[in-house]
Amino acid sequence: MKRKAIILAGVLACIALLSFSLLEGGRKGAYKHYYKGNYYYSEGRFDKAVYHFSQAYDAIPTEFNFALAYAVGLGRVGKTSDSQALLKRSIGLLSDKDPEYRQKTALLYFFEGVTYTYAKQYGQAVAALKKGISVQEELGKPTALSVMYNTLGYATFMNQGQGAHKSQDRPLHYHLRKDDLQRAYDIFKLALQQDSRNETAWTNQRLLGDTLDVPPAFFDTVYNAIEITDYDNLPNNTSEMAAFANYEEVVMLLDISGSMVMENVTCRGATRFQVMKETALFMLDKMAPTTLVGVGTIGGDCGTPPKMWQKAGSLPVTELRSRLGFLNPDGTTPLLNMLVESPGLFTDNPNSRKSLLLVSDGANICKVNNLDICEWSQELREKGITINVLSFLNADLENTNAFAEYTCLADNTYGKVLYIDALNCRITPFTFTLLEATRLRIPPIKRVQCWGPAFKELWAIYPE
What we know:
Radius of gyration: 26 Å
Structural class: alpha/beta
CATH class of the domain at 238-424: Alpha Beta
Number of helices: 17
Helix content: 40-55%
Shape: elongated
Strand content: 5-15%
């Protein structure tokens, strides 16, 4: 009997261990696959991207971002019907309680159009892309709109080819007239009006402009404009963080670990620690006078009390500014420890919009009662607390673990992830990786006389 009890206890222990392992794989592991999928997709390694997207989706099929990414990947590798079926199922994953509901709707329409574009079903692509652009125009975000308009220009251009023709001296090609070229040119122009740094749109517009003998157009970028602030070490487009201040209560959770002084923000020649402190001061400037602000720090070791732990609204902003100036680096990154305690920094008001702003350069190093950081973040959503993240890490494979944590924290609480591109001095949204990786360039065109010498303004496009 005693032996049976020992065996049973051993079995239960194994089951518990396996359950925890599956939870780790199912939650945080899913976000690792999602992150890697985004990375490989942006690198053009689509088969690997699809594998990782499928692993993320299989682990959590109710996560909209996983379903969308997997659908896009399937479309990119030619599995159009599977992609479209998954996109249709993804509609049911949208929640009107999600602050990003309209943005996700725009992306859903857009990538439906992208998938049709990859399948060379350009007429259907144009219709879906226009729906996506219509929703995105309500939301703004010119960089996203620029990508969308460029894609629409490409699909419009490819959809206009008429009269498949093959001759002794020319392979199969389609015909385009001057008004066809002009129509696509005007759409690429819209893309550049949104973001003049969109190199793909420049390439497309210049190719058609040279053909149409139109002088190059020059536009002032209207997105991520340089913002002049009193802080010399901040990135150029600090306005990206403006939405992080739009809450009734904001608690800034600041990473003061030793790594923050060991690494520089290259373009500024300042340590991450210096930039972090200026970021916190800048955010205080942006918050409304009625906003209740709190501050917590992440440093020391797994059991070390934080250097600063001020509840929202407990100190005037002037006092917070003063205390931030005296912060010093301290130890490692016990992220989960501080996150678990952070709800206590908010008031008990159930009606106030609350946000935790995490500014960090690392991943969690401590365990708290075997909690999974992604599983735990869902509890915050139930408490009405949104997590927004600003990271100093680059979005590359070396930082998979950290970005998996950041992404699940933000996704599960309707927040956003931004990271500082230290070479270009820019704050970059992580969530638009798939969107920004959509860089469609029109193929070369040649003037032809297939309709006779009298019809001089005729060009040929050759199937890819």
